[in-house]
């Protein structure tokens, strides 16, 4: 019994030390030119950067930025961050993907996210876009920004609008 308690205690302490180390380093997803590499698609945990507290009225500056990072909260109380594409439409910022991706399911369950654009962190809330015309316009804007991306049918895509704070 004492040996079991010692082993469980040692594992617990190691897990706490590991989480503290990961929290300190952030363990962000990598920025890569070759997105087909596994290490470039691997998710991360916490996003680090300067938190922007001012309102953003025009997100069109993101048209020049190829990828941003998004951090969602998993049901296991750990963050999940990935690199994603974004699109600006009518001065709003949108992120899109398909249902089934972990970050999408996390954002539907808890819409409070952190976005890292450049070195800055934006703490925002996402809302699911249900209007088919708005979804189509956003998908077309994203297709224009990423010409090699195949624009999916409106019914297949999940589109989130980043809410102004």
Describe the fold and architecture.
The chain is an alpha+beta fold. It has a single domain (2-162), classed as Electron Transport, Fmn-binding Protein, Chain A (Pnp Oxidase, Chain A, Roll). It is 30% helix and 27% strand. It is built from four helices and eight strands. The chain has helices at 2-25, 38-41, 102-109, 132-145; strands spanning 50-51, 68-73, 79-84, 86-89, 92-97, 112-117, 120-128, 158-162. Strands 1, 2, 3, 4, 5, 6, 7 and 8 form an eight-stranded mixed sheet that branches. The chain is elongated. The model has no long low-confidence stretch (mean pLDDT 88).
Which properties best describe this structure?
30% helix; elongated; 4 helices; Pnp Oxidase, Chain A; alpha+beta; eight-stranded mixed sheet; 165 residues
List the helices and strands and how they pair.
Elements: H1 2-25, H2 38-41, E1 50-51, E2 68-73, E3 79-84, E4 86-89, E5 92-97, H3 102-109, E6 112-117, E7 120-128, H4 132-145, E8 158-162
Parallel strand pairs: 1-7
Antiparallel strand pairs: 2-3, 2-6, 4-5, 5-8, 6-7, 7-8
- Class by helix and strand content? alpha+beta
The number of distinct helices, counting runs of at least 4 residues, comes to: 4
| Main sheet overview | 8 strands, mixed
CATH class: Mainly Beta
Termini separation = 53 Å
Count of distinct strands: 8
CATH superfamily: Electron Transport, Fmn-binding Protein, Chain A
Please give the share of residues in helix.
Answer: 25-40%
CATH architecture: Roll
The proportion of residues in beta strands is 25-35%
Radius of gyration: 18 Å
Shape: elongated
What is the domain total for the residues? 1
Would you identify the regions where 5 or more consecutive residues have pLDDT less than 50? none
CATH topology: Pnp Oxidase, Chain A
